[in-house]
Recover the amino acids of this structure.
C-alpha cells in the first residue's frame, strides 16, 4: 500500500510511515527513562518547524551534539570551559521551556541553552570563590549540619568524661 505525502505529494510505502512512527515512539520511551531525557525530548521540540514533525535525522544530529556535552559534565563557550552537571542542563532547559513564547521558534542552535548553563556555572564559581575567600579571611566556617554532626551526642556523658580526666587516680 502506498501513502501520499500531504506536503510534497510524493508516494511512499506504508511500512516507511509505520517504521518512522515506531522509531519516534522508541526514542521517546528511551529518553523518558531518565529525568534529563524527558527534558531533552521537550527541548528538541523547540527545533521543530511549525507545520512539520522533526525528522529523525535532525533529532539524531541534535542529540549527537548534546549527549557528549551532558556526559562529560562540561561545556566550552567562547573558549572557556564551564562545569555543566545534569542539574544545570535540567534547569537551563526548564528556563527555555518556560520562556518558549519569547523565543524565535524554531530555534537554530544550542547557543541560548549553553549561555544559560555558562551563566549558572559562573555564578556557582563566584559563590565558591567568595566562600573560599571568607574561609581564608575569617577561618573555617562550619554549617549548622557540620556543627550538629560534630557536637557530642550526650552532653552529660561528655561532661562526666571531662571531669574524670581532671581527676588523678
Amino acid at each position: 500500500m502506498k501513502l501520499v505525502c500531504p506536503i510534497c505529494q510524493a508516494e511512499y510505502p506504508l511500512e516507511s510511515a509505520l517504521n518512522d512512527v515506531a522509531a519516534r515512539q522508541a526514542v521517546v520511551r528511551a529518553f523518558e527513562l531518565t529525568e534529563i531525557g524527558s527534558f531533552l525530548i521537550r527541548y528538541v521540540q523547540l527545533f521543530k518547524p511549525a507545520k512539520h514533525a522533526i525528522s529523525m535525522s535532525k533529532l539524531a544530529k541534535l542529540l549527537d551534539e548534546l549527549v557528549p556535552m551532558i556526559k562529560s559534565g562540561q561545556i566550552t563557550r567562547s573558549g572557556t570551559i564551564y562545569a555543566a552537571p545534569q542539574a544545570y542542563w535540567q534547569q537551563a532547559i526548564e528556563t527555555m521551556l518556560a520562556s518558549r513564547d519569547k523565543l524565535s521558534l524554531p530555534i537554530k542552535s544550542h547557543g541560548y541553552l549553553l549561555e544559560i548553563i555558562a551563566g549558572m556555572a559562573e555564578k556557582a564559581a563566584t559563590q565558591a570563590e567568595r566562600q573560599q575567600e571568607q574561609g581564608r579571611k575569617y577561618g573555617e566556617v562550619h554549617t549548622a549540619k557540620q556543627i550538629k554532626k560534630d557536637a557530642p551526642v550526650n552532653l552529660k556523658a561528655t561532661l562526666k568524661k571531662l571531669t574524670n580526666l581532671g581527676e588523678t587516680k
